[in-house]
Amino acid sequence: MTFDREALKAxxxxxxxxxxxxxxxxxxxxxxxxxxxxxxxxxxxxxLGRAYLDAGARFITTNTFSANRFNLERRQVxxxxxxxxRRGAELAREAIGNREALxxxxxxxxxxxxxxxxxxxxxxxxxxxxxxxALAAGxxxxxxxxxxxxxxxxxxxxxVVKDATGLPVIASxxxxxxxxxxxxxxxxxxxxxxxxxxxxxxxxVGCNCGGGINTFLPxxxxxxxxxxxxxxxxxxxxxxxxxxxxxxxKQTPEEFAAQVPTILDAGTNIIGGCCGTGxxxxxxxxxxxERRKK
Length: 294
Ligand SMILES: [Zn+2]
Hints:
Layout: H1 5-10, E1 13-14, H2 20-25, H3 37-40, H4 42-55, E2 59-61, H5 69-74, H6 81-96, E3 102-107, H7 121-137, E4 142-148, H8 151-165, E5 169-173, H9 190-199, E6 204-212, H10 217-226, E7 231-236, E8 241-243, E9 246-248, H11 253-265, E10 270-271, H12 279-293
Parallel strand pairs: 1-10, 2-3, 3-4, 4-5, 5-6, 6-7, 7-10
Antiparallel strand pairs: 8-9
Helix pairs in contact: 4-6, 4-12, 6-7, 7-8, 9-10, 11-12
The chain binds zinc ion (ZN).
């Protein structure tokens, strides 16, 4: 299976759900960096990847979201950026086996904000390049830049990743601000983000995390109105509630899936979940998508 932009635009494809939160549900301690499980507990990664495929997902995201050099150094992780990311992609590929699905190599924000000069573009470029090259080496079919808030940073990452790997890139941002949640934390408007990302040759644009599926519609509508690219949408399972200092997402698969038709009617092409969603949520979504095809 290859990333086929026109085929994606013409239909609805199901993606996977959250990784960090689902790994923690399956016993990964919350005080370890989830990405280190690619090396320490590969069986957990394979098991979750297969559960998402069994549920109907056709995009398997790698467990590499925050595995960039800045974060590994900050958390004093000994393993190399290259190894964690390459293994992440290899495990997703292994989970897929002979099935029809794509490995989406996940890259999150650097953690530094360009607008306030926490880092320069020259400092960020090699961070994204290193992660992207390792994901490509491990067999990623496409790179997904996810949960970004700063337009300048995602545009930089998009260019660096494309130049370094030649892979298609899905560019997804979090819209958790403004009266209708159509702005990023940095104040960027969804329609402006979509237009800028399309101009910069993203292969798909989208929104993920930052809110529950109940609050996603205005951002989806704004993105759809500003681009003709495939639209990738991965909401959280509701808003987190704090229990013993841990964020807990309580929206059931049924409650999550009940909102999906509205999100699809607004022009979503790829639907999955982010924090708090697991294989049971994706299974519900996939059944619903199948029913709509008939
Ligand atoms: Zn999330």
